[in-house]
Amino acid sequence: MQDRDLGALGETEFKRLCNQVGITIHKSEMDRTGWDFFIEFPWMQDNISPQYILPAPLEMMFHRT
Q1: How many whole angstroms separate alpha carbon 22 and alpha carbon 24?
Q2: Which DSSP helix (H) or strand (E) runs through 10?
Q3: According to the 3-state scheme, what is the secondary structure of 20-64?
Q4: What is the distance, to the nearest Å, from the Cα of residue 53 to the centroid of all Cα atoms in its chain?
Q5: Distance between alpha carbon 10 and the CA centroid of its chain, in Å?
Q6: What is the pTM of this model?
Q7: Chain-centre distance of CA 26, in angstroms?
Q8: Cα-based angle 27, 30, 33 (whole degrees, multiple of 5)
């Protein structure tokens, strides 16, 4: 059986999926703390609330084990 780098394949697929739905991702250059991507979700403006009291956009970190 041929050795494959499934981590790189998975990251490529993850980037493709994020790009399809408009999610911004930032790849870690040095991964000493265990995270691979920083993810920014699209800003969804709430037209009911004034701009200054809107919550911050949702953020999360993706960690591949």
Answers
A1: 6
A2: helix 6-21
A3: HHCCEEEECCCCCCCCCEEEECCCCCCCCCCHHHCCCCCEEEECC
A4: 25
A5: 13
A6: 0.56
A7: 7
A8: 95
